[in-house]
Amino acid sequence: MSSTAATKIENHPLPFPPPHAGEGKGGSRRRETWAHAKYVATENPVTFGAAIVFFVFVFVAIFGPWIVPYDPLASDTQAALQPPSARHWFGTDSLGRDILSRVVIGTQLDFGIAVSAVLASFAVGAALGAVAGFYGGWSDRLIGRFADTIMAFPLFVLAMGIVAALGNTVANIILATAIINLPFYIRVARAEVNVSRHAGYVEAARITGNSNLRILALHIFPNVLPPMMVQISLNMGWAILNAAGLSFIGLGVRPPAAEWGIMVAEGASYIISGEWWIAFFPGVVLMAAVFCFNLLGDGLRDLIDPRQRT
Amino acid sequence: MTRLIEVSQLVKLFPIGGTSSGRRAPRQLHAVDNVSFNIDTGESVGLVGESGCGKSTLARVITRLIEPSGGDVIFQGRNLFTVPVKHFATSAERAKIQMVFQDPTDSLNPRFTVFDTIAEPLRLLAGIRDRDQLHARVHALADQVGLAHELTTRFPHQLSGGQKARVGIARAIALHPKLLILDEPTSALDVSVQAVILHLLADLREQLGMSYLFVSHDLNVVRLLCDRVIVMYLGKIVESGPVAEIFRQPRHPYTQALIAAIPGTAPDKKHSHLDGEPRSPIDPAPTVCRLVGRCPIATDQCEHAAPALRAISAKHQVACHYAT
Amino acid sequence: MSQISKSEATHYPAPSPPPHAGEGQGGGNLATTPTRVPLLNVENLSIEFRTRSGVVHALENVALSVFKGETVGIVGESGSGKSVLAYAILGLLDPAARVISGDVDFGGMDLRHATESDLQEVRGRELSMIFQSPRTALNPIRKAGRQIDDILRHHGNVAGPAIQAKTIELLTRVRIPDPARRYHAYPFELSGGMCQRVMIAMALACEPALLIADEPTTGLDVTTQAAIMDLIAELGARRHMATILITHDLGLAAQYCDRIVVMHAGHVVEVADTDALFRAPRHPYTARLIEATPRADRSLRSLASIPGNLPDLRRSDLPACRFAERCERRDASCDAPLQLNAPEPNHAVACWKPL
């Protein structure tokens, strides 16, 4: 016999409403989400840690230019290739620029690229996927083929191709990253909307006079948004890696801009000669950022739907 | 008693096995197969049958959640299907035919408060925009269904099963519909809550002069709330008549088995069992009675001529060759 | 915590021999031998669940006895704890559950303190269960026949080559049409009724002494329900098997059970022979429940409802009687710790002011 018996109890809905229900009026939902968030944070220290790291990154990204000890672009050949010290916490690179300052400014650039790309990708991809999932038929087939075409390419190579064709600007990096992430959102949105299409409240919405578009926009979309937000967070890490990767191979941000990928590229050739810090620090920070986004995505998923806990 | 709605030769077919051009015609599942019946103003009609009989599909075709494959539905003298589906959502008829759904949890948008849910039909179909007016109407409806005012700011997951059921009812009666279709409204509720909701439905019907089409598999509940009963099997009506008469003296073998199967406290009930599995609803042979293979009194004639619905008394109809 | 005196539990006289299949209750015969040993004896069982929103006091001082060959119905609404009781007997409780106190004795074996391997020996062999939603209780990616084979193989009663034949024989016994072909069917290819028959075949494969049926017909059509219940009753009677029928449907319990245990919010509130229970219920909740159930001879007007709601079982200040707050007969004496009293032989009620 199947062993789902033991877990059936947990999924059995309680016949009475949860405590604190209805305390306060409109704020009840916010209060409940906050209480739930605190619970997730305390039960899941890893997520809490990731959230703290995330906020540190955001702070640095926003306030970077004001807190850097040195000008990230100022070169000082006298102080070139110095190991980490009290004056230069992360050491200096081949042109004598302070690596700590460059890493800090790089945060702004990388985060900015990732956030813009992911949001653009989400906006367009979710809309396309929702239409495909809801209406089906021709729109589904067309949009599906479009997504398949993108996915036929190795995505990183496609990004390289787009940037190579259009030029090495930040805008083009954002565009390329957004395009290669489109199929991801199209699929998720299509699947979620397709399932929600048959939900009872959608039928009820039809009966109360909603047109198809209203149903899609006001009823279905707000309900499929939470699971998609999890995808966004997970995707963000990948987008940062993408931007850094493009810069690493020279198809991204151009020097002397401070960006993690470029810095790792610049430092790569110095590892052999012993100047490890040039590639190490930007590399570690890059890793920490991606890791933090992934953990945050898992935590977000717990916040929204505890039954899918990994 | 005036005629409120007239369902005439309604058919709903679902294609099975995909539809790719270049092959011969796909097989069809006959969910609703030539169904005709009427409901008068103020009448409460029960629609019973087991899973797969087509009663839910029929209810959804009448409310135009699903489009029919054939037949007509004349509502207050007007054929509903003459209005294209796209415009029906905003037509005058939309407000007059409403539905209460089976699963109160599933049929409420989890992101809408109770207020939003009940106000939506008022906003969309009655065009009420004024905030105060909406509040007044929603609170009046909440009173009518026995929902406390402070519950209107809650979300569905903060309500009990009975409260959610009331919200669904309030939403459905918001526009004073003429015909209320209830799709198993109490089957997901506990017995004690069910009793309250049934009383509520009976009271509302009197207060608002609505007609009910009560779809259910629970015959005991139908007996309490309905004047007339229609019994369906595999997409066809097999018997229809006044509630008391059908329960006291069912004529169709299927109805007899259905009533005998109700678990009751009388220990000396004879079970007239239906053995075997139901016939397939996919491309059924039109000349064979749907109950052949399970029917205790079937004969050769039943395989050569499918019985039509015929009257055996003023209001009682049966589709069987041998019903006396 | 309130105490239910043990002496009350052992004073249940043995019920009359099991009825013939499908003929419902037959338990009115008051035997005079008071100390027949029950097959299953649950005493003082209290269970809690630790959840994110607090500790749920799911069961409190539940006592249950089932004798060989009888059919006992456990009746209650959602939240009454009847399913929790069933899982507790089988040792299938969720990890969040904690058994605070109580004993579960099955044929001399202490189930509560048994090791997992001992329990696995007993489950499926002497003690079996069939679940609600038959289609989801079966493994969807394994053929129906093979699932029955697994049970036979695990309990080692049948030699390897003979297993398939025995399975087909079992399928025949549960009246599945065309059993040889259905052996190779997957659960999604079978109707709800047929899946339930497969589950019955699995449960009865090793001829258990006790079968627990947890809402076996919820979700099935009325005609299928009747057929399935008759099947269970008939197969059970043939083997003198005891059955626990868990249901929220009073009518079903009335028709198929010798004795009925009524539960409310984690308490056993009344235990009686079926006939006696419906003729003269002693607990106010039972009476209300009977009045709230639609019946053939009842009008809508006489359909009563039960005021109030279930108490929130997460409260730390739960009263001794969990029905008191909804009861119109309540007075000061109801605050005393609850006890299962027996105003008549064969009829126990946990109420200080019984009807």
From TrEMBL, chain B:
Pfam families: ABC_tran, oligo_HPY. CDD domains: ABC_NikE_OppD_transporters. Keywords: ATP-binding, Nucleotide-binding, Transport. It comes from the Bacteria. Residues 5-259 form the ABC transporter domain. GO terms for molecular function: ATP binding; ATP hydrolysis activity. GO terms for biological process: peptide transport; transmembrane transport. This is Peptide ABC transporter ATP-binding protein. It comes from Candidatus Muproteobacteria bacterium RBG_16_60_9. The lineage of its organism: Bacteria, Pseudomonadati, Pseudomonadota, Candidatus Muproteobacteria.
